[in-house]
Write a structure and sequence with these properties.
This protein folds into 2 domains: 1-42, no CATH class; 44-110, no CATH class. Helix content is 58%, strand content 13%. It contains 6 helices and 4 strands. The protein has helices at 9-22, 25-36, 47-60, 64-75, 87-92, 104-109, and strands spanning 5-7, 40-42, 80-83, 97-100. The strands form 2 sheets. A two-stranded parallel sheet has the order 1-2. β3, α5 (87-92) and β4 (97-100) form a beta-alpha-beta unit. The longest helix has 14 residues, at 9-22. It is globular and about 40 Å long. The relative contact order is 0.13.
Protein backbone atom coordinates (compact mmCIF):
# COMPACT_ATOMS: atom_id res chain seq x y z
CA UNK A 1 0.00 0.00 0.00
CA UNK A 2 1.40 3.39 -1.01
CA UNK A 3 1.36 6.14 1.62
CA UNK A 4 -1.53 8.63 1.51
CA UNK A 5 -0.06 11.08 4.01
CA UNK A 6 3.50 12.32 4.12
CA UNK A 7 5.36 13.92 7.01
CA UNK A 8 8.89 14.99 7.71
CA UNK A 9 10.88 14.10 10.77
CA UNK A 10 10.38 17.72 11.82
CA UNK A 11 6.63 17.05 12.00
CA UNK A 12 7.29 13.92 14.05
CA UNK A 13 9.58 15.89 16.38
CA UNK A 14 7.03 18.64 16.93
CA UNK A 15 4.22 16.17 17.65
CA UNK A 16 6.27 14.23 20.20
CA UNK A 17 7.59 17.20 22.23
CA UNK A 18 4.37 17.95 24.15
CA UNK A 19 3.68 14.38 25.29
CA UNK A 20 7.32 13.92 26.30
CA UNK A 21 7.33 17.20 28.21
CA UNK A 22 4.03 16.34 29.92
CA UNK A 23 4.96 12.73 30.63
CA UNK A 24 1.92 11.59 28.61
CA UNK A 25 3.10 8.15 27.53
CA UNK A 26 -0.33 7.21 26.14
CA UNK A 27 -0.39 10.14 23.72
CA UNK A 28 3.25 9.53 22.81
CA UNK A 29 2.40 5.91 21.93
CA UNK A 30 -0.52 7.12 19.80
CA UNK A 31 1.73 9.48 17.86
CA UNK A 32 4.40 6.82 17.44
CA UNK A 33 1.78 4.33 16.22
CA UNK A 34 0.44 6.87 13.74
CA UNK A 35 3.88 7.66 12.31
CA UNK A 36 4.58 3.92 11.94
CA UNK A 37 1.46 3.30 9.81
CA UNK A 38 2.13 2.14 6.24
CA UNK A 39 -0.20 4.93 5.03
CA UNK A 40 2.19 7.52 6.47
CA UNK A 41 5.29 8.15 4.40
CA UNK A 42 8.34 10.28 5.17
CA UNK A 43 9.71 13.18 3.18
CA UNK A 44 13.46 13.27 3.79
CA UNK A 45 14.97 16.56 4.91
CA UNK A 46 17.53 16.81 2.09
CA UNK A 47 19.78 19.67 1.03
CA UNK A 48 17.13 20.57 -1.57
CA UNK A 49 14.56 20.98 1.22
CA UNK A 50 16.92 23.18 3.22
CA UNK A 51 17.76 25.26 0.12
CA UNK A 52 14.05 25.76 -0.61
CA UNK A 53 13.44 26.64 3.05
CA UNK A 54 16.25 29.19 2.92
CA UNK A 55 14.59 30.84 -0.07
CA UNK A 56 11.21 30.82 1.68
CA UNK A 57 12.72 32.38 4.80
CA UNK A 58 14.41 35.09 2.76
CA UNK A 59 11.50 35.93 0.47
CA UNK A 60 8.47 35.20 2.66
CA UNK A 61 9.95 35.96 6.08
CA UNK A 62 8.82 32.61 7.50
CA UNK A 63 10.28 31.21 10.68
CA UNK A 64 12.67 28.31 10.13
CA UNK A 65 10.28 25.49 11.15
CA UNK A 66 7.48 26.88 8.97
CA UNK A 67 9.85 27.29 6.02
CA UNK A 68 11.10 23.73 6.48
CA UNK A 69 7.57 22.30 6.66
CA UNK A 70 6.50 24.12 3.50
CA UNK A 71 9.74 23.35 1.65
CA UNK A 72 9.41 19.65 2.47
CA UNK A 73 5.88 19.65 1.06
CA UNK A 74 6.98 21.46 -2.09
CA UNK A 75 10.04 19.26 -2.63
CA UNK A 76 7.97 16.16 -1.86
CA UNK A 77 5.40 17.19 -4.51
CA UNK A 78 2.59 17.16 -1.96
CA UNK A 79 -0.87 18.23 -3.09
CA UNK A 80 -1.59 20.04 0.18
CA UNK A 81 -0.02 21.17 3.42
CA UNK A 82 -2.32 20.87 6.42
CA UNK A 83 -1.76 23.67 8.90
CA UNK A 84 -3.55 26.12 11.16
CA UNK A 85 -1.15 28.91 10.07
CA UNK A 86 -2.73 31.05 7.34
CA UNK A 87 0.62 32.72 6.60
CA UNK A 88 1.66 29.59 4.71
CA UNK A 89 -1.06 30.13 2.10
CA UNK A 90 0.67 33.18 0.64
CA UNK A 91 4.11 31.64 0.93
CA UNK A 92 3.03 28.53 -1.00
CA UNK A 93 2.55 30.75 -4.08
CA UNK A 94 0.67 28.11 -6.06
CA UNK A 95 3.44 25.53 -5.61
CA UNK A 96 1.29 23.42 -3.31
CA UNK A 97 -2.15 23.76 -1.82
CA UNK A 98 -2.72 24.72 1.79
CA UNK A 99 -5.60 23.32 3.81
CA UNK A 100 -6.25 25.49 6.83
CA UNK A 101 -7.32 23.54 9.88
CA UNK A 102 -8.99 25.13 12.87
CA UNK A 103 -6.63 25.97 15.74
CA UNK A 104 -6.45 23.21 18.32
CA UNK A 105 -8.39 25.20 20.92
CA UNK A 106 -11.20 25.93 18.44
CA UNK A 107 -11.46 22.28 17.43
CA UNK A 108 -11.74 21.26 21.08
CA UNK A 109 -14.61 23.71 21.64
CA UNK A 110 -16.76 22.25 18.82
Amino acid sequence: MAPDIFVSDLTRLECRVGPLRDGDQGLLRQYDAFFALPEVGRIPMTSDVFDAATELRATQRLKTPDALHLAAAICGSCDEVWTNDDRLSGAAEGRTGVRLLPPRDAAEQE
